[in-house]
């Protein structure tokens, strides 16, 4: 029987997260990396983590004189 183009190779895959967690699974894509996973995403950890590299939250707090320490 001829190999069909409708059935891509389903291969063993390692998905690496930026938090260090590695998932062994299967995909048609091969190894790849992700930025968040269920082990580190705030939705699952219950911890709030704001990605604020540009300091926009600080600027907002300063502009409206919000004191974050008081909360
Ligand atoms: Zn993760």
Distance between the termini: 69 Å
The overall pLDDT average reads 84
CATH fold category name:
Rhinovirus 14, subunit 4
By DSSP (H or I, 4+ residues per run), the number of helices equals 2
Order of helices and strands: EEEHH
The radius of gyration over CA amounts to 21 Å
Largest sheet: 3 strands, mixed
Number of separate domains: 1
From the structure provided, what is the oligomeric state, counting identical versus distinct chains? Answer: single chain
| Class of secondary structure makeup | alpha+beta
CATH architecture: Irregular
Q: Which percent range describes the beta-strand content? A: 15-25%
Q: Identify the overall geometry.
A: elongated
Give the SSE map.
Elements: E1 11-17, E2 22-27, E3 32-34, H1 42-45, H2 56-63
This protein binds zinc ion.
Zinc ion (ZN) binds at residues 17, 19, 21, 36-37, 39-40.
Walk me through this protein's architecture.
The chain has 71 residues and is α+β, with helices and mostly antiparallel strands. The protein has a single domain, classed as Rhinovirus 14, subunit 4 (Irregular), CATH 4.10.80. It contains two helices and three strands. A three-stranded mixed β-sheet has the order 2-1-3, with no helix packed on it. The longest helix is centred in the C-terminal third of the chain and has 8 residues. The protein starts with 10 loop residues before the first strand and ends in an 8-residue tail after the last helix. Zinc ion binds next to loops.
